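User: Can you recover a sequence for this backbone? Please restate the input before giving your answer.

Assistant: Of course. Working from this structure:
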């Protein structure tokens, strides 16, 4: 899949993401990402567009090809009334995903 530009909201909230079109169940997932010939773990939110916050990745992935493996679902997708509520939940989702990686 090819990384595309998103709206930049994740970056504004402190969780920069790679974005791409990917069909499948909506929700938040623990994923494994192959990017630049390396494997990373991350937390993905999938709705109309898939957005992945990749743990320990600092590069620029725009336009690059990625391979994504969904490992497990963390939760269903929810709507938030405020950006603060969304930011808090993203932090919790990332923490939970990192804990699950540690258990692997």
């Amino acid at each position: 899949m090819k990384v595309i530009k998103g709206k930049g909201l994740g970056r504004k909230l402190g969780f920069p993401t790679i974005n791409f079109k990917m069909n499948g169940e909506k929700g938040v997932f623990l994923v494994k990402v192959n990017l630049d010939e390396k494997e990373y773990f991350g937390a993905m939110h999938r709705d109309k567009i898939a957005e992945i916050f990749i743990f320990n990745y600092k590069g620029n992935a725009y336009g690059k090809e990625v391979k994504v493996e969904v490992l497990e679902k963390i939760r269903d997708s929810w709507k938030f009334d405020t950006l603060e509520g969304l930011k808090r939940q993203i932090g919790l989702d990332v923490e939970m995903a990192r804990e699950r990686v540690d258990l692997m």
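That completes the design. The beta strands are 18-20, 27-35, 38-46, 50-54, 67-75.
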